[in-house]
Design brief:
- By secondary structure, this protein is α/β, with parallel strands linked by helices.
- The protein folds into 2 domains: about 5-170 and about 210-240, NAD(P)-binding Rossmann-like Domain (Rossmann fold), CATH 3.40.50; about 170-210 and about 240-280 and about 295-309, Alpha-Beta Complex (UDP-galactose 4-epimerase, domain 1).
- It contains 11 helices and 14 strands.
- The chain has helices spanning about 15-25, 55-65, 75-80, 85-105, 140-160, 185-195, 215-225, 245-255, 270-275, 285-290, 295-309; strands at about 5-10, 30-35, 45-50, 70, 110, 115, 160-165, 165, 170, 200, 210, 235-240, 240-245, 260-265.
- The strands form 4 sheets. A 6-stranded parallel sheet has the order 3-2-1-4-5-7, with helices on both faces.
- Helix 2 packs parallel to helix 4.
- The protein is globular, with a radius of gyration of 19 Å.
- It starts with 5 loop residues before the first strand and ends with a helix.
- The structure holds nicotinamide-adenine-dinucleotide and 2-amino-3-ketobutyric acid.
- Nicotinamide-adenine-dinucleotide binds near residues 12 and 177.
- Nicotinamide-adenine-dinucleotide (NAD) binds near residues 10, 52 and 144.
Amino acid sequence: MTFEKILVTGAGGQIGSELVPFLSEIFGKDRVFPSDVRSNTTDPRFINLDVTDKTSVELAIDKYKIDSIFHLAAILSAKGEKNPELAYKVNVSGLYNILEASVKNKVKLVLTPSSIGIFGPDTPKENVPIETIARPVTMYGITKLMAEHLGNYYHARFGLNARGLRFPGLISYKSPPGGGTTDYSIEMIIEAVKGRNYKCFLKEDSKLPMMYMPDALDSLLKLAEAEDSRLKHRTDFNVTSFSVTPKELELELRKYYRSFEVTYQPDFRQRIADSWPGSLDASAAVQEWDFHPNYDLRSTTEDMISHLK
Ligand code: NAD
Ligand code: AKB
């Protein structure tokens, strides 16, 4: 598949701020259009775009002759529990506007990341397959599950090439995370590198699946470029690299910072973490588009530390 004009929504966020340079390097700067509701950039390509504004979404896709979209604009789990109405508006109405405008303008690809947030307390905890019990208990999870179904609906009904993958917690150092439950992992590494101790908002044994940003970027590109004929799934691929508890991350960091200490004081985010699985089965992504993560806990920590230093 060739992508001529690529729109990235939510481009100022944790993923977008790395996906834009990554795609620009591969496809050329003039083919990638970063957009966000926040404008904190001097990038001349930047489009100020609120995805909840249907008319603006349609105008932007039409004006810039967009043929593919990485739709990253969203409100994450912890922020979404503080403002469920905003999470609903951005995650559901925002996606609806993107899908509608994409059908109208014959956009060739709409790729929307989903999340382990779509699972709930009734989901099995380990090696969770794609199809399983998914009864999320957060507004974030409910909206992300709906987003997967909306993508499938637009594919079945209008032939739109909607795709998506369920990311675990993403670890990265270039931009701060946007208000999620897995953010503790990034915060803990940053504090260790700064020579400070860390107060963790999750319990020490809260195991969650994680992935390092280079693997996340690579998986977005691989799914975007995957042969349609190989896809049995569309919007709900599980992807994961490794699973870790806060205590295991603390111990990994102590290999580099011997006096580093973490205290555990769970807050409202513990309930969210408790409702998510500890590990995922990513075999469909491996079979259907050659998903292949390169980083484990050790190499992620090592690389994060070397860059943060
Ligand atoms: P983020 O919170 O860092 O960034 C989201 C961006 O969306 C922000 O720059 C924000 O300004 C923008 N935004 C918010 N409302 C908007 C609106 N109305 N119009 C346009 N832009 C708006 O999030 P992220 O971590 O980059 O996540 C991107 C996608 O990946 C989301 O769909 C998220 O659910 C998914 N995801 C992320 C993770 C992770 O760990 N980062 C894990 C699983 C899934
Ligand atoms: C969050 O914690 O909300 C995100 C996610 C796993 O979707 N990082």
